[in-house]
Design a protein that fits this description.
globular, about 45% helix, 11 helices, eight-stranded parallel beta barrel, TIM Barrel, single chain, alpha/beta
Amino acid sequence: MKVSDLFKQDKQTLSFEFFPPKTEEQEAHLFQVISELKNFNPDFISVTYGAMGRNRDKTFYWAKKIKQEFGIEPVAHLTCVAATKYGIKNQLGELESIGVQNILALRGDPPEGEKDFVPPADGFSYAKELISFIKQNKPQICLGVAGFPEVHPSLKDQSIDIKYLKEKVDAGAEYIITQLFFDNSHFFSFVEKCRNSGITVPVIPGIMPITSVKQIKRLTQICGAKIPQNLLNLLEEHVDDHEAIQKIGVDHAISQCEELLKAKVPGLHFFVMNQSGPVSKIISRLQQFPVF
């Protein structure tokens, strides 16, 4: 099923995002994680794409596994990084052959240590070009894109960021999944600005439970999100207590999700970080909502 068809059913969706494991041990762990989270009946699972396209084969492998072995609709990430038009066309054919109907189309980040994104020869500089190419070659594929409630880290002006986002939607994107955020006001403001700019497709909030202070500081620096000061103070008070940090992260995510679900967001997308525990605790405490 296409993700876009889910929104026609007048329901709030539940989805998870994983990254491809690198070792056999990690693969066995991820298989167990997906098995546990499957009990919550997710509508789709997205699989990320490694830096410089290194994990492409693993992305496709897990997309196939999620669809065929778990019976869950996969969304494969596809980027412009180290990818020629010829290569992308082959990748589209490969995804089609394993039954993948949904792609999250991204420009991708420059390699670590480099400030600017440099497109490969005969490749694409922007996600909107990738989207147009996919729509020309495989118009039946449902395309999602990323949105940034606190502005893309390479930009300072949100109006420019939303202008680019609209160009991606105009090129064929059918829904938006946001980057992580910890203050819902950023999400609600972002959606309002999207609507004012003429963007009408569903905007799904991306939620990441905090499980490590070091990890979340690094991730927020990369993606441009901010940790509210009161939450940061609380985390730093318990920085060496893993259980306390996980409880703080779970409780904050629950509070976020409750407000978002009451506001009738199209769904919730959890950045699982290949762990089932925190997300399982969150969903178990949101059982009063119809989506669960």
